[in-house]
Amino acid sequence: MFDDLLRALKDRLFHPTAIVVGRWLSPNALSLIAFAMGAAAAIAAANREYGAALACWLVNRLLDGLDGSVARATGRQTDFGGYLDIILDFTVYAALPLGLVYGSGDPKVALAGVALVGSFFINAASWMYLAAILERRGQGVQATGERTTITMPPGLVAGAETVVLYTLFLLLPGHLALLFMLMTAGVAINIVQRLVWALRHL
Q1: Which of 22, 40, 117, 178 is most buried, judging by how many CB atoms fall within 10 Å of its CB?
Q2: Mean pLDDT, to the nearest integer, of 61-69?
Q3: What integer pLDDT is reported at residue 23 of this predicted model?
């Protein structure tokens, strides 16, 4: 919901660091390191090491924000880089709840976790296919000026909200079933929002 505003702010804040980091690491290398930290977070969550999982998750998010800033600051934006970044992000987004489900061992948490990951699947289709149509129509990033590889139609739950909710998962593991269902409801609203938008505009 706040991603467009926060992305521009992030680039301004990260720019000096991005210039320095870009001398040593490519954007794709940062994406891969971020993925490794995300995988470590999922493994730690599966082992109920919630403090370590939280630390790894926050580093994952920091590096994921930095890779795009480095690409833009150093003129190394590529379509492959954007593609790699979204694939790695979605892998982490699925792995961390699954790690939490495994560590919990609670059937209610497992059911809520399945619903959450299932909602991600439908949500991804809802925005990626819509983004492809908008790009084909010339209404994508070149028209909107977004700082992403492809246009990302807005929704209630996007990157910023995911950071907050996943952080709550790790801070409040005793309430996972409720938190999972809360996020599932938010993602469901995303899907409905885009369906309504598509009905009106396509």
Answers
A1: 22
A2: 90
A3: 87
What topology is assigned to 3-201 in CATH? Four Helix Bundle (Hemerythrin (Met), subunit A) (1.20.120)
CB distance 11 to 145 below 8 Å? no
- Closest by CA position to 159, among listed 127, 199, 196: 127
Contact 82, 150 (CB under 8 A): yes
Residue with tokens 């399945």: 114
In this structure, what token pair is assigned to residue 196? 């309504």
Q: How many angstroms separate the first and last alpha carbons of the chain?
A: 22
* 188: phi then psi, degrees, rounded to nearest 5: -60, -40
Tell me 151's DSSP state: -
95-111 pLDDT per residue, tens: 999 999 999 999 999 99
Cβ pair 115, 181 in contact under 8 A: yes
Q: Where are the domains positioned within the chain?
A: 3-201
**Number of neighbouring beta carbons within 10 Å of residue 83:** 12
